[in-house]
Backbone:
């Protein structure tokens, strides 16, 4: 068990889901200045291959649909990192008509990175925090999602036509 | 003038069986099916009993076994669907004349049954919906028949005999001429490249059951005949042989290339059949013992896997009523056994061990390496790469991808499945023990002498290397078991519907849009245009335009006009007249 | 006896393949002026992939695809003479057996990806097969002078014939063919500029698009073996006759060379790639055939 978690913590494959402003911080994180591959973190092409869903900033209702779908397509165990104040409480778009405020209501978030926008150091710090949580077995957002699916669905239904959209 | 008695007996048996089935099928569909199966089986058993008594030498025997296999399977496909009664009769006739052709060992018998098989197949194709294929078939094969008639006449004039061995009495230059003509006749039957136009059309337009027989058995008339021509000429063939080898390799490459670009399963298979027969021509053209054994082995494996593929496509047609690759897809869910059959068929087509397709290609490669012509060798290899491409296109577009039809379909009918199993068994067993086939042809090919080549059931040994095909197969299976164990111990998986797919998080309404099938190799089509633009078909069209009157007549064939047959007869009379007037005195 | 030997070889090659992959990532990172992951990163990745729960699947063929790819590569490995004095089977491996066995793995992947029903996957497969026209053909042409001169297609004999002095290496005797074979090896490995099959930014990693969890793990193992088999094929033909450690060292050198090219290259369009093969490498190979004949 421990070796599994050890491996899971040291090999985090990212799902590019770059909405919002925060995406701009990812290229420096990946490239030579900050080099996140040091920690076994690598970008992947599709949700099936990825372990971590990065939500980089504000989410409109339209993108939320895609985020939920991508999240559900990922394979357990899977983790979410919320990026910037927008995912925490709406940030500077808190009163916008089409932006959701609390990402946590729709999918379980394991780690938040506060800041508007967070620096690459903060991002890497978040990954290391996530690694720590995985190794300790605390990053269990995917279990919560499974167990409390009805609750999440209820929240999702409030703003989205989830059933018609055809989540799976 | 004596026609071989055995051949007549065989032919009569089959015609009687066909007639009986015809009347039974007229009474009711069910009785037709049962009667068709029973009479067919009975006649084949009869033929085998007959030949057990008069046991035949090598290649003939092998061809009998192969054609019998193809016959039974295509009969099974015929009886598992709505077949018009007349097709049973015509099919029986074609089968009977094929057997009779193989049995006869003199020119008269050969000619009669060659023509009879042509006529039966022609009638069978034109009694279907689309007729173009039938007329093209008749045009080319009729011309082939004429050539053969000329050969017969020529040899009779020179030697006064009709049996094959008469060729030995010819003078060397006459011999070369005679055998070139003979080889051309059978090259047309095999569809070697400049004479291939009829094949895709005929295979497409023929009834599915007939197509199985056409590709698996009737083309073997060509192989057998060409083999005889090479055999009778012996080692003196080698000079002209290289030309044939080049014809073969051009066929293999170009037909493979055309096969990639087809949008219809039967046309794709027709081109693939052409391409595979190209290998046979290469082997015969090289004319040494290794290459000829390889060619015959490849003819056998072609007979098995190509008929299997046509059989599966026929079964798919029974259920879906289409062979258009753009309309099919995802049938693996509903027709798993057919899928497995097709899978092994394409594995053999691509020549991957441990199937029958591999040893035959292996032998041909070794023969080519020994022959030492780099162009021939590398182009042959190119053709076999193309085989991967079109085989994947076939299996993907029919069985994989999302399911594209409206209603659900069932597994192929039982007789068709039985036919598939009939092919699958030899496909796998002979892949492990190719020597079983080679035993039949050991004696005749000794005549060609050359490379030091020996075999046991599972092992082939050439000067270049020794391979034990059984070992290859066993290693293959062993590691697959290991891989499956690794897979099984790694935990279970969760099955999802096709719609739950990576679409950049977009929900899709209709899963059919996930099917990437039409114009599959579009980059090849787009960028190889310079090669494909000058197709041989166009060359023929231009040639026909050039020839004014004749061209006018022949271009009517493209419109599907019955009168072309009349032109054809006129042409024949013209040639006869030409002969009476004197013609080429040196030849007559 | 040789069952044990075969299993040991397979395990060794898998470990080495993963190691090569890890070092390649390190090398790539150094070219980018990064630190890069630890050299054992690929082991962690495979371990993680196998520890994933309930990977998604689209059907039987989808699941058997990676299995066929993995198994097929293992089978091809068995027919490659790994270093001197190590023919696994009595008949020691024949070029045509190997060339035809090598395609079992891509065929399996193609079938699996086919049932995934993702257009990205199928486009990837169509591209991969098209590219095969280029590299397989060129590779075959480049080894022609060798099999013609040595008059054998037995891989073990070809390798052994080169042992002795440096000048008996085929790489020295057939330099142009060697160059052509290296280029086609590059495409076999799927490194840029020949990564049209996978092309993560374009068709979302092509055939692998729907694979995750243990299936992707199997594919990683397949790739690890493929690295050694494909470079090993070139080593056998052109740099053969050394002992086993040197054999692996040479495969490593060839692989790292390919990786270094890969890091600085963009991607060809698919047909540009095929055309490239018919222009430069094919001409190189043909030049050597002509020199050899003359
Ligand atoms: S937190 Fe700030 S930087 Fe990030 S998405 Fe919101 S507004 Fe943009």
Residues:
């Amino acid at each position: 068990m421990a070796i599994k978690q050890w491996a899971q913590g040291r090999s985090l494959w990212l799902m590019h889901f770059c909405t919002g402003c925060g995406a701009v911080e990812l290229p420096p994180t990946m490239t030579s200045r900050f080099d996140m591959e040091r920690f076994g973190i690598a970008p992947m092409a599709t949700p099936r291959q990825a372990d971590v869903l990065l939500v980089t900033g504000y989410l409109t209702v339209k993108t939320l649909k895609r985020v939920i779908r991508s999240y559900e397509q990922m394979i357990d165990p899977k983790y979410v990192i919320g990026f910037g104040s927008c995912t925490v409480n709406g940030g500077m778009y808190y009163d916008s008509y089409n932006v959701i405020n609390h990402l946590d209501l729709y999918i379980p978030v394991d780690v938040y990175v506060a800041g508007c926008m967070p620096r690459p150091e903060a991002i890497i710090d978040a990954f290391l925090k996530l690694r720590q949580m995985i190794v300790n077995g605390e990053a269990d957002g995917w279990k919560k999602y499974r167990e409390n699916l009805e609750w999440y669905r209820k929240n999702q239904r409030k703003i989205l036509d989830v059933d018609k959209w055809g989540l799976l | 003038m004596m026609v071989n008695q055995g051949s007549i007996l065989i032919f009569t048996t089959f015609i009687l069986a066909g007639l009986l089935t015809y009347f039974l099928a007229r009474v009711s569909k069910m009785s037709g099916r049962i009667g068709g199966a029973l009479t067919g089986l009975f006649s084949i058993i009869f033929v085998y009993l007959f030949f057990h008594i008069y046991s035949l030498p090598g290649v003939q025997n092998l061809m009998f076994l192969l054609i019998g296999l193809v016959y039974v399977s295509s009969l099974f496909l015929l009886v598992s669907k709505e077949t018009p009664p007349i097709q049973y009769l015509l099919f029986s006739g074609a089968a009977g004349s094929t057997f009779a052709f193989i049995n006869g060992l003199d020119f008269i018998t050969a000619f009669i049954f060659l023509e009879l098989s042509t006529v039966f197949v022609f009638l069978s194709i034109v009694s279907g919906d689309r007729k173009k294929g039938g007329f093209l078939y008749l045009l080319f094969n009729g011309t082939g028949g004429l050539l053969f008639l000329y050969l017969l006449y020529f040899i009779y004039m020179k030697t006064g005999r009709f049996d094959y061995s008469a060729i030995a009495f010819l003078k060397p230059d006459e011999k070369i001429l005679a055998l070139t003509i003979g080889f051309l006749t059978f090259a047309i039957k095999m569809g070697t490249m400049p004479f291939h136009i009829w094949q895709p059309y005929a295979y497409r337009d023929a009834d599915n059951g007939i197509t199985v027989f056409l590709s698996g058995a009737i083309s073997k008339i060509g192989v057998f005949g060409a083999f005889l021509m090479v055999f009778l000429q012996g080692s003196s063939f080698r000079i002209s042989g290289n030309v044939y080898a080049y014809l073969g390799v051009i066929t293999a490459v170009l037909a493979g290339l055309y096969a990639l670009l087809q949008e219809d399963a039967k046309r794709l298979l027709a081109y693939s059949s052409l391409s595979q027969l190209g290998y046979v021509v290469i082997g015969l053209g090289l004319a040494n013992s290794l290459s000829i054994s390889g060619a015959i082995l490849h003819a056998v494996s072609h007979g098995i896997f190509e008929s299997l593929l046509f059989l599966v496509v026929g079964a798919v047609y029974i259920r879906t009523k289409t062979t258009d690759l753009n309309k099919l897809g995802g049938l693996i869910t509903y027709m798993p056994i057919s899928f497995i059959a097709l899978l092994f068929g394409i594995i053999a087509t691509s020549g991957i061990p441990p199937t029958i397709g591999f040893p035959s290609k292996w032998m041909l490669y070794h023969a080519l390496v020994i022959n030492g012509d780099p162009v021939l060798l590398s182009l042959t290899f190119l053709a076999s790469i193309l085989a991967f491409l079109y085989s994947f296109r076939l299996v993907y577009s029919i069985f994989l991808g999302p399911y594209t039809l409206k209603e659900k379909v069932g597994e192929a009918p039982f007789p068709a499945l039985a036919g598939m199993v009939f092919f699958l068994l030899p496909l796998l067993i002979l892949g492990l023990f190719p020597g079983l086939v080679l035993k039949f042809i050991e004696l005749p090919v000794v005549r060609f002498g050359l490379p030091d080549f020996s075999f046991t059931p599972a092992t082939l040994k050439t000067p270049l290397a020794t391979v034990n095909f059984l070992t290859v197969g066993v290693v293959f299976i062993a590691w697959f078991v290991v891989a499956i164990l690794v897979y099984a111990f790694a935990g279970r998986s969760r099955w999802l519907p096709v719609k739950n797919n990576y679409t950049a998080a977009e929900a899709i309404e209709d899963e059919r849009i996930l099917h990437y099938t039409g114009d599959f190799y579009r980059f090849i089509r787009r960028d190889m245009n310079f090669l494909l633009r000058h197709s041989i078909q166009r060359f023929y069209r231009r040639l026909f335009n050039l020839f004014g009157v004749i061209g006018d007549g022949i271009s009517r064939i493209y419109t599907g006009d019955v009168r072309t047959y009349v032109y054809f007869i006129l042409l024949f009379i013209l040639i006869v007249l030409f002969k009476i007037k004197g013609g080429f005195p040196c030849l007559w | 006896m040789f069952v044990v030997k075969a299993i040991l070889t397979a395990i060794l090659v898998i470990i080495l393949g993963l190691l090569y992959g890890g070092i390649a990532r390190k090398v790539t990172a150094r070219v980018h002026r990064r630190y890069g992951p630890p050299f054992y990163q690929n082991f962690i990745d495979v371990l993680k992939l196998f520890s994933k729960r309930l990977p998604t699947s689209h059907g039987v063929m989808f699941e058997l695809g990676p299995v066929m790819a993995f198994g097929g590569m293992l089978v091809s490995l068995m027919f490659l003479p790994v270093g001197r004095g190590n023919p696994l089977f009595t008949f020691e491996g024949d070029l045509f057996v190997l060339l035809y066995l090598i395609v079992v793995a891509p065929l399996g992947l193609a079938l699996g990806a086919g049932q995934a029903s993702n257009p990205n996957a199928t486009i990837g497969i169509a591209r991969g097969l098209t590219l095969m026209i280029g590299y397989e053909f060129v590779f075959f042409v480049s080894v022609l002078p060798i099999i013609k001169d040595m008059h054998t297609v037995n891989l073990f004999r070809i390798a052994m014939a080169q042992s002795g002095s440096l000048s008996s290496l085929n790489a020295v005797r057939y330099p142009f063919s060697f160059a052509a074979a290296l280029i086609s090896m590059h495409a076999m490995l799927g490194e840029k500029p020949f990564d049209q099959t996978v092309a993560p930014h374009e068709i979302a990693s092509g055939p692998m698009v729907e694979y995750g969890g243990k299936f992707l793990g199997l594919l990683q193992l397949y790739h690890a073996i493929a690295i050694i088999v494909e470079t090993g094929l070139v080593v056998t033909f052109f740099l053969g006759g050394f002992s086993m450690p040197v054999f692996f060292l040479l495969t490593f050198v060839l692989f790292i060379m390919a990786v270094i090219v890969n890091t600085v290259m963009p991607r060809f369009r698919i047909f540009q790639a095929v055309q490239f093969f018919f222009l430069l490498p094919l001409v190189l190979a043909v030049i050597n055939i002509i020199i050899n004949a003359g």
